[in-house]
Amino acid sequence: MKRILVLVVFASIILHGLHAADDAGLDDSLQSSFGLLVSKSFSDKAAAIRDIAASGNPHSIRVLSSLLDGNLYFHKKNQSMILVSATTTKEYEIFDLLTGKLIETRSKKELRKRYKKVVINNKLRGLLNEKLATLTIFSEDKSTRLTSVRNILKTLNPSAVKLLRDAITQETDQDVKELMRICIAVFDARSEIPEIQLAAINTLSGSLYPEARTVLEQLKTTQFDRTGADSPLLQAVNSSLQAIELKAGVYKQVENIFFGLSLGSVLLLAAVGLAITFGVMGVINMAHGEMLMLGAYTTFVVQQLMPNSIEYSLFVAIPAAFVVTGLAGIGIERGIIRYLYGRPLETLLATFGLSLVLQQLVRSVFSPLNRSVVTPQWMSGSFEFNPVLSLTYNRMYIVVFALLVLFGLLWLLKKTSFGLQLRAVTQNRVMAKAMGIRTDRVDALAFGLGSGIAGIGGVALSQLTNVGPNLGQAYIVDSFMVVVFGGVGNLWGTFFGAMILGIANKFLEPVMGAVFAKILVLVFIILFIQKYPRGMFALKGRAAEG
Amino acid sequence: MMKYKPFIFRLLETDQGGRYFMSILLALIVLVLVCNLVVPESSSFHIPTYAVTLIGKYLTYALLAISLDLVWGYLGILSLGHGAFFGLGGYAMGMYLMRQIGDRGVYGHPVLPDFMVFLDYEVLPWFWYGFDHFWFAVLMVLLVPGMLAFVFGWLAFRSRVTGVYLSIITQALTYALMLAFFQNNLGFGGNNGLTDFKDILGFDLRSDKTRVALFVCSALALLLGYLACRFIVLSRLGSLIMAIRDSEGRVRALGYRDEYYKLFVFVVAAMLAGIAGALYVPQVGIINPGEFSPINSIEMVIWVAMGGRGTLYGAALGAVAVNFAKTYFTAVAPEVWLFILGGLFVGVTLFLPRGIVGAVQNIRGMYRNSSEAGISQEAARK
């Protein structure tokens, strides 16, 4: 664990250092210290470390931390410093220490032959830790300071905490200062002096860092054993813990809402096309889920075609999926559904058969196993709001994307002539036809549009789950529920239906388990349509009598 | 000419296909019995017992298809959740068979079935009480699907949920049941379901005699089920439900409370499906939550569509034909089966809107080439 942390700090420092690496003016001072560093004497090395720490050079943090990690080597002949990191157990990447450029990749044996490691002992390690902590805590970069304090919070090294007490007086940034206060308080909570302890416990009240909670819970058990139930210290501990739990509970709910919104967004993308086709033609396309699946597989294929630019693959995949599934939708409408016009139940059966064929087709072409779609760098990771609440980027993007699609569709329906025709056919097909609207063309295009949206929904879904032949099936019943719940012919109905069902699912899940949550939602919908047989946002008046 | 005719003849008087169906079914019973029990094993006319059980399974499917046809073909409700009733009937029978195992399970517990021992149950859950009696299980086979159909239908028909909405909700119903029965803590064996049955009413389930007896029971149930449906269809209630199918609004305007009639037929169909499930389970030896999966229910619909909806014998024919094809193809080329099934859905709806029966009638109509034939059939369809 500690190693990973060090690596993380190290990596962030390298990244930071690389940007600053160009100004070479200060490097001379480092070079002279390097001369001492290659010496065999540990006291020479200690002097070098002190020099480097005092130099104020932007590279000094990187040099010292790599020295601490044992990654610092020097060339046996010209004594120039290099940085080595192991990529695998056999291969080592060798970087130039100051510029950060990759020089070569060597096997372990060749590395030993040409370069020599800068050896350090425990005393030097202590010195390095101290100097590094000082350097990072007083660093000018805020994120370096934050990481540094966070690491101190994890180790709670007494000398480091002492350093913190100095640093907090000079700290100007509120976030860093707050973290420093928590860190000192966690340390002080284990103090022997009751007053300090009490103050620390009060400081920790409502803090969301897991360390704060752990130390308070430890105190609770030890204090209870020592002083009994009604010591003021224990009361303080209890109230602080309560504050923490309250706050954590609130953020847990926020997280649930976020998960619900992201689930709702997926449902929205899946259901909106269904709502359109159902609204226009009164038929339910059971192969709609397979359009999601086709969209997801299109993403997979696009990524296979452009393996070197995965970062941009989604921008290609979205239009590609729209075109592929849109054409498939138009094909279904022209090939099957138009012959079944006026027989919605038969349409349901025929499209269901089609979904079986499509599933089996995908199984035959791509194998029945799940395919993994790569998530681009810019979509992975998460935004850490606070220690308990972190929102993953891919879900955030999906929420945004779903909203964009929704507004795009609203624009299409309200502002274009195709949208006008679509709405006209939805409201009264015969009258629309009498007005000269080519209803069969509108049918085909509406089907293509609905399927196309499901396709880009599939692209979004491929970023959340595995891509397999049964992908669509898992979402089809839920999408129907959204349509039934939200009503037909109004996109806002679909929007609210999807979001409410998504959030309801995520809130019920922790209480009663995922499956029973789903069952409860289904039962709720069955009861809901008792009262509102046409959904929340039903068309009113004559249009309702379809 | 008010000469007395036996009830059964009155039922089949106008039903030529039904008469064929009855004759074939009776002939099948005799044929299977003779070929299995009398013809020696060495003869090529001998029907092995596994085949008898297979045919018995098809017959339970046929009964299920008839019950679905009553709902879809005559009442006009496309139920995509008919498998729920079949499955519940099957589970009720499975629970009886489970209790019959007694202490002969793998764990040898005197009271609890194996899966309960495995899942650390202390006592038998209350809803398992009574299932050691056969009569109680039979009652439940009828009551549980019937009650579910009643509650669901009462809610759905009263608020006038119709058409595609209703179909989707029925699908949601069976989907919800599937999810629930997959849960281990529901007390029905989780995803393994109920299996490892030993005997029924004291007869060993693995013995050939019991299996043949079960086949005969299935055939008789199908026969009686057919007659019961035929009776409903021919009665005044039957005329009414067909009127509901063709124009629900008019029936309502004439002053009928259509939801009651719909509810009655729906419940009867659910009970028939429950019986089919109860006969299915001892023959295949297992019931698991997969029976509730939406795809199963929708497959049943294609049996009916394939055979010809609105003709009870057509539904039975379709069930046997499709399942025979399924058994054949899943053995020969499993990956092709879904293509075929999917193709059937599309092909039947596009090219055989009245199923095999309808196609045969059309061909015969062409032969006769006269004005009076076929028209009445056409009028019965919508």
List keywords for this structure.
heterodimer; A: 546 residues; 3 domains; five-stranded antiparallel sheet; 22 helices; 7 strands; B: 382 residues; mainly alpha; two-stranded antiparallel sheet; 16 helices; 4 strands; disordered C terminus
Overview of the molecule:
The complex is a heterodimer of chains A (546) and B (382). Chain A has 546 residues and is of the alpha+beta class. Chain A has three domains: 2-137, no CATH class; 153-230, no CATH class; 252-472, no CATH class. Chain A is 71% helix and 6% strand. The longest helix of chain A is centred in the middle third of the chain and has 50 residues, at 232-281. Chain A is globular. Chain B is an all-alpha fold. Chain B has one domain (7-293). Chain B has 16 helices and four strands. Chain B has helices at residues 7-12, 16-38, 49-74, 82-101, 114-118, 134-158, 163-182, 208-234, 236-246, 248-253, 258-284, 294-307, 312-332, 334-351, 355-368, 375-380, and strands at residues 194-195, 199-200, 203-204, 286-287. In chain B, strands 1-4 form a two-stranded antiparallel ribbon. A two-stranded antiparallel ribbon of chain B has the order 2-3. In chain B, strand 2 and strand 3 (203-204) form a beta hairpin. The longest helix of chain B is centred in the middle third of the chain and has 27 residues, at 208-234. Chain A binds chain B through residues 278, 282-284, 336, 339-340, 343-350, 352-361, 363-364, 477, 480-481, 484, 513, 515-516, 518-519, 522-523, 525-527, 529-531, 533, and chain B through 78, 80, 152, 155-156, 158-161, 163-165, 167-169, 171-173, 175-176, 179-180, 182-183, 294-295, 298, 301-302, 305, 335, 338-339, 341-346, 348-350, 353.
Question: Can you lay out the helices and strands and say which pair or pack?
Answer:
The complex is a heterodimer of chains A (546) and B (382).
Chain A: H1 2-20, H2 27-37, H3 42-55, H4 60-69, E1 72-75, E2 81-86, E3 91-96, E4 102-107, H5 108-114, E5 115-117, H6 122-137, H7 142-155, H8 158-170, H9 174-188, H10 194-204, H11 210-227, H12 232-281, H13 288-305, H14 310-335, H15 344-366, E6 382-386, E7 389-392, H16 393-415, H17 417-427, H18 429-434, H19 439-462, H20 471-486, H21 491-512, H22 514-531
Antiparallel strand pairs in A: 1-2, 1-5, 2-3, 3-4, 6-7
Chain B: H1 7-12, H2 16-38, H3 49-74, H4 82-101, H5 114-118, H6 134-158, H7 163-182, E1 194-195, E2 199-200, E3 203-204, H8 208-234, H9 236-246, H10 248-253, H11 258-284, E4 286-287, H12 294-307, H13 312-332, H14 334-351, H15 355-368, H16 375-380
Antiparallel strand pairs in B: 1-4, 2-3
Helix pairs in contact in B: 2-8, 3-8, 3-11, 3-12, 3-13, 4-6, 4-11, 6-11, 8-9, 8-11, 9-11, 12-13, 12-14, 12-15, 13-14
